[in-house]
Amino acid sequence: MDAMTKMWISFLGIGLMAIAAFLITFARVKTKGILKFVLSFIAFVMLIFGFIYGFFSII
Question: Closest Cα to residue 17, out of 47, 39, 45?
């Protein structure tokens, strides 16, 4: 894989992690009930995918 592709994959991972951090903060501060659980779950999934993309860009 060339360096430019690795850069874009790492940007995707960083972006997913940043969006997940914002989403979990929003879910904990502004929502409650089932919506809080759903937003937290979505943020967790995005965090996992961000980690996978970040790890994949290192290889």
Answer: 47
pLDDT digits (tens, 9 = 90+) for 1-10: 889 999 999 9
- Whole-model pTM: value is 0.87
Q: Give the number of other Cβ atoms within 10 Å of residue 50's Cβ.
A: 20
DSSP string, 11-54: HHHHHHHHHHHHHHHHHHHH--THHHHHHHHHHHHHHHHHHHHH
Residues whose CB falls within 8 Å of the CB of residue 28, separated by 6 or more in sequence, listed in order = 36, 40
Quote the CA–CA distance of 6 and 28 in Å, as a whole number: 33
Give the number of other Cβ atoms within 10 Å of residue 9's Cβ.
19
